[in-house]
Amino acid sequence: MNNGSLLATYFRARRELIQPEDVGITREPNRRVQGLRRQEVAALADISFDYYLRLEQGRHHQPSEQVLASLGRALMLDEDAMAYVHRLAHNAARPLLRPAPRAESLDENLIRLLEYWSHTPAIILDRNQDVIRANRMALALGSGHFNPGCNLVMALFDAEVRDTFPRWEESVSQALAALRYESDPFDPRLREIVDILSTREPEFARVWARHDARPIMSGTIRSGDTALGPIDLRFQNFSVPGHGGYALRTYFGEPGTDGAAALGQLALTVDRDVATESQPIPIAGWMPAP
User: Fold this and answer.
1) How far does Cα 85 stand from its chain's mean position?
2) Which domains does the chain have, with CATH numbers?
3) What was the pLDDT predicted at 227?
4) For residue range 124-160, what is the model confidence (pLDDT) as tens digits?
5) Residues in CB range of 125: below 8 A, 6 or more apart
6) pLDDT in tens, 268-289
């Protein structure tokens, strides 16, 4: 598959999601087509049907900025979706994104920062949502899901998480949109994640087929493995410049909530465990495949 094929697949998926009424087209009786017809998209974008057909067939790899803007309006694409479209359209050679560094090459200051946040769970993620590094608080909090080598998207489909996660369906949609937006479609690790989840999780296959693409900067998780029982925590992502798509994520509780209280208790436990160690425990690390 080349970038032209990826762009074609994206346009087709988005076309099939838009209903005629969404763009002011009267639905005729007994209409059977899913979403919009190709002719309708071409007319809305003010381009020829033949030109749009070549795009959807992957036979035209580098549409102009004007064409992309017109198609974005026709397909009701937001700013994030358009950024993704431009990435597909203007990168003819593989890979689309710069390779991430190996885990052991991370900036030492970044690794130290995780441990300086001794009362804040913090992890480093790669663009496939694999956990690369985790501090002690995160390792103590995450029921194993924050252990280096674990994948946060795959963790969402664990039965325990599915049953306790707030607004699980919405969280899955956000996570998969971020996975598509941040990852490189030619990355073998991404293909591995998609193949595994597509085989065993119908909900994954349904949502992934939408081709939603947008970053995720913040959100909410629920953790059940605390002294206070299930708690809701907020998270915030920070991009790590110069590290090939790595992100630093921190978790926190809103002041006065059970989440904040539970993190305070967890910090005391972690501090006590550290104080009783004869030597510091090294930060767990996972080295992704080159």
Assistant:
1) 16
2) 3-89 (1.10.260.40), 103-276 (3.30.450.180)
3) 55
4) 999 999 999 999 999 988 678 899 999 999 999 998 8
5) 131, 132, 152, 237, 246, 247, 248, 249
6) 888 887 777 644 444 333 333 3
d(CA 84, CA 77): 10
Instruction: Tell me which amino acid residue 19 is.
Output: Q
Q: Exposed/middle/buried for 98, CB within 10 Å: 0-12, 13-18, 19+?
A: exposed
- pLDDT value of position 281: 41
Q: Is 163 left (phi over 0), alpha (psi -120 to 50) or beta?
A: alpha
pTM score: 0.85
- Cα separation, 85 vs 180, whole angstroms: 12
pLDDT band per the 50, 70, 90 thresholds, residue 93: very low
In the block, residue with structure tokens 């998480």: 161
Q: How far is CA 80 from the centre of its chain?
A: 13
Query: In the chain, where do the E strands start and end?
Result: 122-125, 131-134, 218-223, 231-239, 247-252
